[in-house]
Amino acid sequence: MRLLRSLLHFLWMGATVIPWALAVVLVAPFVSRDNVYKMCAGWLTLSVNSGTLLLGIHNRVSGMENLPSEKTSPAVLLVKHQSTWETFSMVALMPHPLAFVFKRELLYIPFFGWAMSRMDMIHIDRSQRAQAFAKVVEQGKRLLARGTWVIMFPEGTRIPRGQKGLYKTGGTRLAIDTGAPVIPVAVTSGKCWPRKAFIKTPGVVDISIGKPIPSVGRKPEELMREVEDWIEAEMHRLDPEAYREV
What we know:
By secondary structure, the protein is an alpha/beta fold.
């Protein structure tokens, strides 16, 4: 049954991403970036809803009250990364538009990448680290000033359930350079959607949003250690079975 449900969801995603992406590419030159984002966010929200319907994956969110409430309040979200699920869910859940920081190679993915290229995101060339971070700061300041939150995965890639990656300081450096607070987010998506797995498991994904951490006057490494400590402690609390042998 899990194989059948996973196959149906995969086919649904494939069947809908093509017309959606083509519509975004065709419409983008004639509408605002905000409307392009709404089109993309609509498909991502449908993908989360289809995951609930077809895969039996449900989000259980806590800490929404910790998010800044002002329309133009800046924030840098630093999120635990275990699967594709949180990439979609963050857009569906957050009250502000989000700008992901991602490697530019993703833009070459047929249809999905083409649509992403029409969004106001921050895509970087990882082979040019100094120039890449300068671009993150430049675009991050512009996006944060207009009320778009920047979202980053500090471990850089999807991490298997129960494990911890190397937390890099790019997100805290951006927050310090822009004065935006950091918001840590713990996600247990690996329970239902393991990294690189085709077969998904029905269940509950906990998404826990921490309190904003001020960045002004902090050092990147020190601030990232605080983020890492909170996220990893929260992961142990939310998914203790995954850490029994750690």
